[in-house]
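Q: Start with the shorter request: fold the first protein.
A: Done. Sequence, then structure:
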Amino acid sequence: MDLRQLKYFVQIVESGSLAKASRQLYVAQPALSQHIAKLESEVGKPLLIRTAKGVTPTENGAALHHHARFILRQLDQALSVARQEPGTVHGMVSVGLAATTVCAVGAPFMRRIRERFPGIVLNVVEGMSGHLAQMMRTGQLDLAILFSRDAVPDLPAEPIVEEELFVMLPEDSDLVPPRRVKLSCADTASLPLILPTSIHGLRRRITSEFEQRNLAMHVVAEVDSLSLLMTCVRDGMGATIKPMSAALVDGRMREGWRTLAFSDADMRRVNFIYSVDAEQLSPAAAAVRAELRETIRQLVLQGEWKGVNLLQSAAAGQGQESPRFSP
C-alpha cells in the first residue's frame, strides 16, 4: 500500500464514481481501477460497491476512507512544517463555523490571521453544526465552533461564549407593540415565525423549549439559508428566533432590527471550540486556535458582539495570544 493508492481511493469515494475521479486526478480510468484492485488485494476485503450509478464504500471502505483522509492531511501538514523557514508558521488550517458565527467573527478573524500569520492559508467552511461535527469526526477540519459539549465526544472542546436567543424582527414591524422589550413564549408562539428546519440544532433547541410548555409555534416558513431567512424577516414576512449574531455584518450590528429577549425562558446556547488532539495539532492550527479565541474575546469585550457572555476561561484570557512570527 502506498500514499498514491490512498489518495486515489479517497478521491474515488468522494467523487462517487471512477469516471469523475479520473477527471479530477488526471489519471486514466483503467489505471485507477488497477490501483483500487491492488489496494483491495492488499487489504483483503472489498472496499467499494460498484453499481451502474457509481461507487459507494463498503463498511471496510468507509473505515479506510476515514483514516486515509487523516493520514493524507497529516502528511500535508508534516511537509508544510518541514518546508517552512525557521521562525515562521506556514500551512493550511481548516476551520468550521456556523453561519451565525461567521456573521459575528468571520471577517475580523480572517483579518487577524492575515495580519499576524501571512504564511497561514485559512480555509473557512461555513455549514450547519451537524455537518461541521461530521467533518471534525472524519478529519476534514482542524477546528470548529459547535454548540454541544458532546458534538464530537472524542475531541477536546473548550467552552468560549454563551449566546442568548432573541425574537428578531424589523424595527418598523407591527407584529409586536413598539414598547415591548421582552416576550413570553406564549406571545412568541402566536407570531408568524420563519425558522430553520429541524436538521439544525438551533431549531431543535427552540422546539424543545416550546414543547415543554405545550405550545405550538406558528411556523409560516422554514429556511436553511441564514441570509435568505433574515431577508424574509426584514421584508416583513414574519419574525424569527436567533442569536443576535444573525444581524451582524463584519462583527457589527446591522441597523433596523429589534431583538426581544424571552421573559419566561432561559434561551441560551454555549459555543465550544473543538480541535483535534493536541499531539495532532499542527503549529499553524495551534496558532489559529489561539487567534480565534482572542478574536472572540476582543469582539465581546469591545461590545461589538452583543447578546453573548464570555465564559470564565475566555474572560480570563486563558491561552495567551500566540506570538507574532515574521513572514
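Q: Next, the second protein, separately.
A: Sequence, then structure:
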Amino acid sequence: MSSPLITGAVVSEETAASAGAPTRPFHVPHPTPPRGKRKRKGEGLVALAYLGPGLAGFTFFILVPLLGSLVISLFVWPLFGTPTFVGIANYQKLFADPTFYTVLLNTVVFAFVYTALNLALALAVSLWLNTRVKGAGFWRVIFFLPAITPMVANALVWRLMLSDDGIVNSALASIGITGPSWLSDSRFALASVIVMSVWQSFGYNVIVLSAGIAGIPKELLEASRMDGTNAWQRTRSIILPMISPALFFTMTMTMIGAFQVFVQPQILTQGGPGESTNTFVLYLYRNGFVFDRLGYASALAWMLFIIVMLITALQFAGQKRWVNYEK
C-alpha cells in the first residue's frame, strides 16, 4: 500500500497529531511529583512540631487569660459568688473614679522619671566601663547583681535603710543633718521608690549599652581622635548615633516595665502615705484581691494595656527620627 505522501492523499490534522504524538510503553510508570514538594511538606510538619509547644503555651497562658479578662471586665465578678453582667459599667465607673486619675498620674510620673534616670545612669556607667578601665568585667558583674537579686529582698533592705532610724538618717545625723521620713512623708516617698527602682534595674541596661558601645569600630573612634575631637564630640556625633538601636530597645523595655511597677511601692510604702505612691498595678491588685472586685480590676488591666500600647506605638513612630540602623 502506497504512502499518502507519495500518492498525494490529504491527511487530516487530527490524524497527523495522533501520528506525531509520542507513545509511552505500557510498562513505563507515570512520572512522580517533584521531591521538592514532598520535602517542603515534611519541613512544614517539622516546623509545626517545633512551634507547637510554644503556640500551645501562648494560647493557654496568654491568649485565653487575655480574652477571659476582657469577659470578666463586663461583669461584677466577686471571688466567691455569682457574677452579674453589667456591660461597660466597670469602664464608666473607672472614668468617674478620682483614685484612678491619682494612680495614673503617679504611674506616669514614676515611669518617665525612672526611665530617664535609669538610662542616664546606665549610659554613663557604660561609657566609663568602655574607657579601658581596669576590672571592667568585675564592675559589670557588680552593677548587674541587683538586677538578678529578688526584688522583694532588695525592697526589704531598702525599707530598713530608709526608715526613720535607718542607716541613711544615721549617716546624715553623723554630719549634723536631720534626715526626713523618707517613706512616710509624701514629699519624699515617691522619690524614694524611684531611687530604689533605678538601683535595682539599671545594671541590665548597662550590659546592653556596653555591648552596643563595644561593637563600635575602634578605627572610627581613632580616626575621630586624630581629627582633634574631644570626648563629648565623639560621644555626641559617633557613639550615641551608633548605639541608638540599643538605646531605643532599652528605653522601650524600661518604659513598659515602669508602667507595671508593683513590688517596690507594695513593700516600701504600701502605696502611702495616702495615695502618694499608689501605682496602677498596685491599685489593680487591691481591687481584685483585697476589695473582691475582679470585674473592676479587669477593666483597670485593659486600660493599662491600652495605655502601654499607645506609648509604645508613639515610641516606635518617633524612633525613625533618631534611631540609626545603618552601620
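Q: Describe the second briefly.
A: The first helix runs from residue 4 to 7. Confidence is low (pLDDT under 50) at residues 1-20.
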